[in-house]
Amino acid sequence: MDSNGGTIAKTKINISNHASNLQIVKDFASNIIGSFSGGMLSFAMGLMLLSETKSPISSGLGMIIGPIMSLLFLVPIGNIVDTYRHKNIILTSMMIRIITMTIFYFTINMFNGNGKLIPVIIFLSINSVSTNFSSTAYDASVHELVNDEKIEKLSSLTQIASSISSIFAPMLGVALYSIIGFDLFILIEIISSIFSLLITSSMKFYKIKQVSSENSKQSSLDKFKEGFNYIKGFKFVRYIIMIGAVFNFCFTSITIGVPYITKIQMHLGNGPVSVYESAASVGMLLGGLTMSIMPKKAGYMIKFILPTLLGIFMLISISGIAFFHTPITVSIFVGVIMIALMFLLAILNITTQVLIQKNVENDFLGRVMSLIIALNMSTMPLGALFFSIMFKIVSNTSMIFVISGLILLVYFMILLPSLLRMFKSSKIIS
């Protein structure tokens, strides 16, 4: 049913398994290239800013800017993705990103010290918007790329490609950072993005006829309201937002605190930080591989959600205990925790994404994905600012992780009865 009570027919097209597999191969190649270079650039940028500013917020700058841009462009992103051809949106966004990186390359050295935050913030803002457009359009175009049987494989291999690149990107990044400097990382990313653009342009996006004839007559605000009302009919999506907002706030304690404690408080240098980044990527890779071989029935996938959430929250608390040990033990302990944590997070992300893509109508998929991303990420800037302050003023910083995990566990237990009723009835839409 649509938001006005009318019936929305399922829009499907016939894509062969061979065509779907070809699309997956191209997507895998594009993600390998883009994730590898992007991971090195992000890692090098974090190290550069941390060295220049000596502030824990440097490593979490993207977590502040990204959600803010998502909220500011929430309405146009969803509306545009649901109105125009997805391939055109993706290619345009990628070209804007390449142009922005080129300008960033020629201007970054005009600033010194804290002044480098100016070009970095501008770059991250534009990059966030363009990436948000392309990623939302990509998520909404899954039915244009592969048939329904290949959706899980596409999502899993996309995660695997990203993880493989991320495993080696921090290692190579920390090895090259002191040799080639930050500028060359930008140049590498520009060249890699051009290759990704060429691969994406060769992919075939099968056109799906828009069902709603009234869609083009609606104002931007009306389209947004329609998407918001559509989401209200999904129990599953509502719980994703309720849990995701609180989770992302608390999870910033990990993304900001781990590199800050390791490099600034424990003076262990960049090496352990790169090891943690790689360990996290290994966990994501294992999670993607696990989901790629799991049975594809929705009911089977749903069974993973609650245990996975519980495991993630417990690991966040346990991570605080790791920093009570010697430097060598800390590196090993934190590395193992990051593998386990990101393994569970990959399973959770793939499961929820596939369930959404299979149950949301094509006409609404862009607005739904945009709203979920924006609302779930909206608490990350607050979390980044809050935990940046906490890691500065709290003497026993490792306890911050313990408390963050406990908060999530208590919140989870409060929601658990409602979640169990929803999964028991197998009604993710109501």
Automatic annotation (TrEMBL):
It is a multi-pass membrane protein. The chain crosses the membrane at residues 28-50, 57-77, 186-206, 239-261, 273-292, 304-324, 330-356, 368-393, 399-420. Its main location: membrane. Coiled coil: none annotated. PANTHER family: INTEGRAL MEMBRANE EFFLUX PROTEIN-RELATED, MAJOR FACILITATOR SUPERFAMILY ASSOCIATED DOMAIN-CONTAINING PROTEIN. This is MFS transporter. It comes from the Bacteria. Keywords: Cell membrane, Membrane, Transmembrane, Transmembrane helix. It comes from Apilactobacillus apisilvae. It is found in: Cell membrane. It holds the Pfam family MFS_1.
